[in-house]
Design a protein that fits this description.
2 copies of one chain form a homodimer.
Chain A: H1 2-12, E1 14-19, H2 26-36, E2 43-49, H3 63-72, E3 77-81, H4 83-86, H5 90-103, E4 109-114, H6 119-131, H7 134-145, H8 150-162, H9 166-172, H10 176-191, E5 196-201, H11 218-226, H12 231-235, H13 240-251, H14 263-272, H15 275-279, H16 288-298, H17 302-309, H18 316-327, H19 332-341, E6 345-351, H20 353-365, E7 369-371, H21 374-383, H22 388-404, E8 424-425
Parallel strand pairs in A: 1-2, 1-4, 2-3, 4-5, 6-7, 6-8
Antiparallel strand pairs in A: 3-6
Chain lengths: 433, 433
């Protein structure tokens, strides 16, 4: 039977991707299409951040809308990366995502974009990061004791340790996509995860760039939206479906959410809590609690606050994330527990017809709970009170409830959406059309 | 010597007033002037709410600006009613304020406005409230068991118990100024406080009215400000100094603060906390925690939330106060401790030349700490950690820090103002000018 054959094919090769899709743009489409050309893949599964991102900011539009964009571009199944991994530094973000892909039980390959495109060199570096040879560690330690920030000390230590590749390293190490890619490869190496890595060289403007071109960065597209630039510029940078979905979300009053939309809640919370409370929050150490409290006292806006806390040691994204942990009262102990367990469930945000079939396969192969209805997620949370599973769900759900309050239209701000929203389903494709 | 004679006069009669001055208007001026005609008073002291009010809302402009309005109208000394009393139901508000006046050691009279103006009848009712005769209690209990709200059951029980005065009672009991007046008189009676009460009949439009006249209510004046009505209408309702101060505060970007300005912080906080946490908050009982959480989940704005929680049992002001307690994490135990101790300090918001002299008298007569500099308040808070005194100061200070974030101009939102702001001082009056 055709169906059985197809199922066997799926067992052979399934492509995994990690993304934020904030929003889905031509660069994401390019990665998707190029990756699929690298093998005979039965389906593509993307692990995607929810409503809050690795930069510690709320997403432009909600996770279901972003999943829909990806489905339209050909991703078959969208799974949410829980908040407790999605809003973390590169290593823990990568670790949560790679573990989630592996725990589906069906993903065989991991594709990622990189500025470099040189997989073997990236793997070589990732191997050093994973195994930390003694002499590398000694150089790193020396740099840190000289007061260098960790990324800089690490970069210099790698250059000194690897010697011959020094010039290439100087090009590779600053690339934000390279950095994430290195962390995926490091996790694969560290944990012996049987995912075959693929890397596709990124096209177009750099990650931080804000000019618009066919390969504009997500950041440039968001800026264009916030600044109400003409839609033409956005049109040229995203697939038509992304544009339609963005326009729909804006007209429904559910977009565009900016990085400062949580301003009051974050500032008020910081003024109410004590330094002692702050000290228990994840990533608050070395007296950062005093630095944050002082800034909260002297600053009038979130942007002023970020700039005030920022230093060589604390980057803006790290500060943003820390402020988010503070608002959500995420303690060091809680995060330790989440990291110990890794992802505990697959929250399905959307699927295509092919995605639906692979979900059946996952139900057989995966040990994780699969939530393809909100009510299932709620039940699992209620029935497992006190476990890491319930805690992670509760955190995701609270994040969604807080995010919903940022919608421009008050009528759309209802809470409990994680427990009531169904995955986005693209109409099953009719063969031959 | 003239100075000594003056000091002796002060010892004879000092007028006390309890107020919110949100903002100070012609009705307040009328009360002040009429009260002072009732005796030979050496000075007038007002106990005034800080930045948050009995309705559970932030004030129109900050406490120093409102103190300045009152000083200009002839009040000599402004003392802050701590947050933990200022944002409470009528009885506890009145109790905190009357205790504070008494604890100055110098106030001899308490003046208050009332719709009724009939002191002896108000005292008669207050006596019943203070002593709760058995037969009155029985009627009250019966009414409550019939499901009546407490104010309605109390009103009907008083009417039945007092019989002969029934018709007058029907007129007296609904008046918001009468209600507060009754509570002042009740506290005086209950605690045997040696303050002589005076009541002045209110002039002009009712408390809840929103039309503007020479005796417009504070509410009507605030509405006119929020709605950007012409200044002429405000001019006719407030003394010139109030108008100038309001215009200055607006131009400095520190006014006008509306009742919904804390919207996001309150809503986000409600979505983050659990019903179990809510249950520990002061005034949350009888399952109100579930009612609040449900409303927080279904509502998109603070106004919608209030209307959604509102019922026969829970008035809008009670809900507003409860939301404030929730934001400031005020537990039942904490409030019990505060009520046990009563006011622990005199935070001086402003004084006239006469007020400065009476402050010297208070320093001799009062057992409470007197803060006429922010730094003194901070030191007392730091040095008495863990006591009711330090807790109350810390709460006041956090309330001011949160309030400052509501200022329209970001540059004015600095925290720590309670610990850095000096009292408003009206230039000493030169005799004979």
């Amino acid at each position: 039977m055709i169906l059985e054959n197809e199922q066997e094919n799926w067992a052979m090769a399934v492509l995994g991707i990690v993304a934020e899709y904030n929003p889905f743009h031509n660069g994401h489409l390019y990665l998707l299409e190029k990756s699929r050309q690298q093998g005979d893949f039965s389906a593509t599964i993307a692990v995607m951040s929810g409503n809050f991102l690795q930069r510690g900011e709320p997403a432009l539009c909600d996770k279901w809308a972003r999943a829909e964009m990806a489905l339209n571009a050909g991703v078959d199944l969208l799974i949410e990366l829980p908040f407790c991994f999605a809003t973390r530094s590169a290593y823990y973000f990568a670790r949560g995502a790679v573990q989630l892909l592996q725990r589906t039980g069906v993903v065989t390959h991991l594709a990622f974009g990189s500025e470099s495109g040189q997989l073997s060199l990236l793997q070589k570096i990732a191997g050093i990061l994973a195994h930390e040879p003694e002499s590398y560690k000694a150089i790193l330690k020396k740099g840190l004791s000289r007061g260098l920030s960790f990324p800089l000390a690490r970069s210099l230590a790698l250059q000194e340790f690897m010697g011959a590749d020094k010039k290439e390293l100087q090009e590779i190490l600053p690339g934000p996509n390279n950095i994430l890619g290195l962390e995926y490869l490091r996790v694969i190496e560290e944990e012996g995860i049987p995912l075959v890595p693929l890397t596709i060289p990124r096209q177009g403007s750099s990650f931080h760039s804000s000019d618009l071109s066919p390969f504009s960065s997500a950041r440039a597209i968001r800026q264009a939206l916030y600044q109400n630039l003409s839609w033409e510029k956005i049109t040229s940078s995203v697939p038509p479906a992304t544009e339609e979905i963005l326009q729909r979300e804006i007209s429904l009053g559910r977009a565009a959410i900016g990085p400062d939309n949580l301003d009051q809640a974050i500032m008020v919370n910081l003024r109410l809590i004590s330094t002692n409370y702050l000290k228990g929050i994840y990533e608050v150490s070395e007296g950062l609690e005093f630095r944050i409290k002082e800034a909260a006292n002297s600053c009038g806006t979130l942007e002023e606050l970020r700039q005030c806390i920022k230093s060589k040691r604390y980057s803006l994204t790290r500060i943003n994330r820390t402020l988010l942990y503070t608002l959500f009262a995420l303690s060091k102990n809680q995060i330790e527990l989440y990291d110990q367990h890794g992802p505990q469930y697959l929250h399905i945000l959307g699927f295509s017809a092919k995605g639906q079939k692979i979900l059946q396969k996952i139900k057989i192969k995966s040990k994780l709970k699969i939530f393809s209805r909100g009510s299932e997620m709620k039940r699992a949370c209620d029935e497992n009170q006190g476990t890491a599973l319930a805690d992670m769900i509760s955190l995701d759900s609270r994040a969604t409830d807080v995010y919903s309050l940022l919608f421009p239209s008050p009528a759309t701000r209802r809470g409990g959406r994680d427990f009531t929203t169904s995955p986005v389903i693209l109409p099953p494709m009719v063969p031959g059309t």
